[in-house]
């Protein structure tokens, strides 16, 4: 197949391209920056704000996997632009190009649109996909980790110091990026389910507590860290401090603090992908060890 991919230069997208090529597919990938030529990949220069590049991206594609989105932004409008307006533009390109299969990467945050601007924007994106008239499928990944991820890297660094500051007590699900990529590739097949929302994870029933995950991170880097659960008020205070120091480039915003403080980011077992279609293959303990080794080899850790 020829698969059109947005977000192909990001963390998930890079692994997705690898999975697509390994499965024998051709890839057309949107990019804002010049990329080195690569066998099997056609780079399309442009962004979700540009109609012509999106048209070129969709032309000749058998399916579209829409990964691109905004994870952190200073305003509601900025979130909506990246996660709703951008999705609408990609849906329009798919429709104009006659591409029926549309795989949309959302987030568990869409289940709680009133909790954060991020979640609200993801819910808006989902609503647009569901009313598109295409053969859509939505994937809501939980926390995704793996080689190349700079978000989880900060937690690995904390684990190595021996002291980990974690959100208030709660539970969440995890998924290795390569398992997510495998699911997305499985879903481009026209025989795969359509008009469905899936919530994949690593197969751990009831997910992980923050302290369990901190202990697993510690094992991955050869430490037994002291884990301190920060109250929600402390997260909000830290977010305000980060905003004062880094302005619009703050990594811990009030919006993200609200997201982190939520006590249940565990996938719904009723929304699991069909076992005959996909299942997780990377145990989290082993995946964390491999990720730590990758970080160390790159000089990140």
Distance between the termini: 38 Å
Low-confidence stretches are none
What is the level 1 CATH name of the domain at 2-142 and 174-201 and 268-281?
Alpha Beta
Beta fraction: 15-25%
Give the helix level as a range of percent.
40-55%
Order of H and E elements? EHEEHEHEHEEHEEEHEEHEHHEH
Mean pLDDT comes to: 93
Basic shape: globular
CATH topology of the domain at 2-142 and 174-201 and 268-281: Rossmann fold
The CATH H-level superfamily of the domain at 2-142 and 174-201 and 268-281 is NAD(P)-binding Rossmann-like Domain
Structural class category: alpha/beta
The biggest sheet, with number of strands, parallel, antiparallel or mixed sense and barrel status, is: 7 strands, parallel
CATH architecture of the domain at 2-142 and 174-201 and 268-281: 3-Layer(aba) Sandwich
- Rg over CA atoms, rounded to whole Å, is 19 Å
Strand order of the largest sheet: 3-2-1-4-5-6-11
Number of helical elements: 10
Number of strands: 14
């Amino acid at each position: 197949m020829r698969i059109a991919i947005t977000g192909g230069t990001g963390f998930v997208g890079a692994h997705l391209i690898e999975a697509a090529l390994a499965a024998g597919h051709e890839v057309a990938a949107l990019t804002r920056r010049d990329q080195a030529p690569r066998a099997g990949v056609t780079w399309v220069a442009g962004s979700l704000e540009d109609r012509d590049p999106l048209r070129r991206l969709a032309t000749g594609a058998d399916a579209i996997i829409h990964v691109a989105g905004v994870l952190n932004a200073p305003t509601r409008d900025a979130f909506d632009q990246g996660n709703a307006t951008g999705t609408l533009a990609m849906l329009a390109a798919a429709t104009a190009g006659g591409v029926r299969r549309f795989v949309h990467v959302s987030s568990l945050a869409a289940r709680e649109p009133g909790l954060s601007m991020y979640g609200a924007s993801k819910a808006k994106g989902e609503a647009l996909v569901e009313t598109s008239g295409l053969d859509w499928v939505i994937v809501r990944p939980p926390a995704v980790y793996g080689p190349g991820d700079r978000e989880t890297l900060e937690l690995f660094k904390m684990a190595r110091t021996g002291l980990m500051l974690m959100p208030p007590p709660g539970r969440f699900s995890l998924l290795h990026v390569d398992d997510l990529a495998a699911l997305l590739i499985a879903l481009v097949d026209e025989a795969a389910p359509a008009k469905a929302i899936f919530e994949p994870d690593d197969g751990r029933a009831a997910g992980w507590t923050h302290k369990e995950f901190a202990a697993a991170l510690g094992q991955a880097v050869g430490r037994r860290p002291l884990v301190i659960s920060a109250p929600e008020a402390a997260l909000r205070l830290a977010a305000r401090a980060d905003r004062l120091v880094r302005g619009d480039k703050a990594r811990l915003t009030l919006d993200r603090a609200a997201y982190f403080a939520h006590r249940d980011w565990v996938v719904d077992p009723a929304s699991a992908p069909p076992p005959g279609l996909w299942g997780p293959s990377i145990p989290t303990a082993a995946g964390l060890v491999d990720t730590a080794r990758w970080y160390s080899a790159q000089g990140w850790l």
